[in-house]
From TrEMBL:
Domain NAD(P)-binding: residue ranges: 36-234
Source organism (scientific name): Seminavis robusta
Phylogenetic classification of the source organism: Eukaryota, Sar, Stramenopiles, Ochrophyta, Bacillariophyta
Entry-linked Pfam families: NAD_binding_10 (PF13460)
Protein name, per record: Epimerase dehydratase
Length: 350
């Protein structure tokens, strides 16, 4: 559900000084790098519903494992119908960057973990500087803050242990340095585990085998709703001044075990979902058997090892940043499953 629909208010009720169709002129054209992504689709939809019409959305229409081949096109059609300018965008094709960023003042970036990231993100950021982008909002994973207290301990361990998190942290470092040689200001929204991730990564297993496979050893997991991440993103994009050059850690309402998630999935979908708890090495072998590349196998297993460490159980691993930005408390996993209004078209799971 978009932020405006959830609250039943115009954006002016959320961000003082902004009318329903009047925003900071500096926002300008917003480019969203992934209109078919879990967060990107929600951000694009909410921006358009809020009345911001200068929304350009990149959609990659290639094949996605476990998804209908027309998935990308369905997302593109749905966003175009709402008023977005939809363009083809492939992170691996640098030629797409120039066209995507032409006339853009604000970028919303949800960067996938792709091989060759050391070339991809710096190249994209270089074109952003060239095109004089003014504000860059990036989704990341939890990261240490300046005080190195509280959540910073968990974020530091994740960055040291999980290649995916280290990848995002390095990209964040590059973005933070961009202000030194360009006009770009940034807001980095660092998220804990998205509630959508297990549903996407195990979609085929959930649908066909009715199993939810983890290696978290019964420990609570810090799951955050992509709806909360999207709502925070919209608030930042449309009123960037108080959020310039800041980093936030967006977390869920508290730890929830994967066994509890399986029970919620069972109740929600009306089919018994068996929770299968594996050891680290067995889990890694299971992920490898799904045909994923080795670098993704390593990431998936490393995340489970971090969950099993119990670090997500600590109260210090949670922040008030979602509420600070949006004015609403984080959505629980059950609420996320019931929230159908902003599901991407063609998706069996949210």
């Amino acid at each position: 559900m978009s932020f405006m629909k959830a609250t039943g208010k115009a954006l002016a009720d959320v961000i003082p000084g902004l009318g329903h169709f009047t925003y900071d002129a500096k926002v300008g054209t917003v480019f969203i790098t992934s209109g078919s992504g879990v967060v990107g689709y929600r951000v694009a939809t909410s921006l358009l519903e809020a009345g911001h019409k200068d929304v350009r959305v990149g959609v990659w229409k290639g094949d996605r494992e476990g998804m209908d081949k027309s998935f990308g096109q369905q997302c593109a059609d749905a966003l175009a119908a709402k008023g977005a300018e939809v363009i083809d965008f492939d992170w691996t094709n640098e030629d797409d960057y120039e066209r995507a960023l032409d006339g853009v003042k604000t970028v919303f970036c949800s960067l996938p973990h792709v091989e060759g990231w050391s070339d991809v993100f710096p190249s994209f950021l270089r074109i952003c500087k060239k095109k004089k982008v003014e504000h860059f909002v990036k989704i990341s994973f939890l990261r240490p803050t300046h005080d190195w207290k509280g959540i910073s301990a968990a974020a530091r361990q994740y960055r040291e242990s999980v290649p995916f998190v280290n990848f995002h942290g390095t990209c964040d470092d590059l973005l933070e340095a961009a202000k030194n040689d360009s006009r770009i200001s940034y807001t980095i929204l660092c998220c804990s585990h998205l509630m959508s991730t297990p549903l996407i990564m195990q979609g085929k297993i959930l649908r066909e085998d009715h199993k939810f496979i983890t290696a978290s050893y019964g420990m609570g997991v810090n799951y955050v709703s992509p709806n909360d991440v999207a709502d925070a993103s919209v608030c930042v994009v449309l009123n960037n001044k108080p959020h310039r050059n800041k980093v936030y850690n967006l977390t869920g309402p508290g730890p929830i075990t994967d066994a509890s998630v399986a029970k919620l999935l069972t109740k929600h979908y009306g089919t018994t979902i068996e929770h299968v708890e594996l050891g680290y090495h067995a889990y890694k072998a299971n992920v490898r058997s799904r045909g994923l590349p080795e670098w993704q196998v390593k990431d998936a297993a490393a995340f489970e090892r971090m969950k099993a460490s119990g670090i997500d159980e600590l109260s210090a691993s949670y922040t008030k940043d979602v509420e600070k930005i949006t004015g609403m408390k984080p959505e629980a996993f059950s609420g996320y499953l019931d929230n159908k209004s902003c599901m991407r078209p063609g998706m069996t799971f949210p």
